[in-house]
């Protein structure tokens, strides 16, 4: 899979929508460093998210 393909398949960890080309946040999990993506709507609403790798939960 090329880096372009990976970029197109990024999804919000909270709601699951495809976030490519949107105003999404990308950050590393505070516990394990796994890359996490969240859409602007979920960030604004402070929806919970869970890291797929370690299970860390945050607002």
Automatic annotation (TrEMBL):
<protein>
    <recommendedName>
        <fullName>Small zinc finger protein HVO-2753-like zinc-binding pocket domain-containing protein</fullName>
    </recommendedName>
</protein>
<dbReference type="Pfam" id="PF07754">
    <property type="entry name" value="HVO_2753_ZBP"/>
</dbReference>
<dbReference type="InterPro" id="IPR044720">
    <property type="entry name" value="HVO_2753-like"/>
</dbReference>
<dbReference type="InterPro" id="IPR011668">
    <property type="entry name" value="HVO_2753-like_ZBP"/>
</dbReference>
<dbReference type="InterPro" id="IPR049683">
    <property type="entry name" value="HVO_2753-like_euryarch"/>
</dbReference>
<feature type="domain" description="Small zinc finger protein HVO-2753-like zinc-binding pocket">
    <location>
        <begin position="12"/>
        <end position="55"/>
    </location>
</feature>
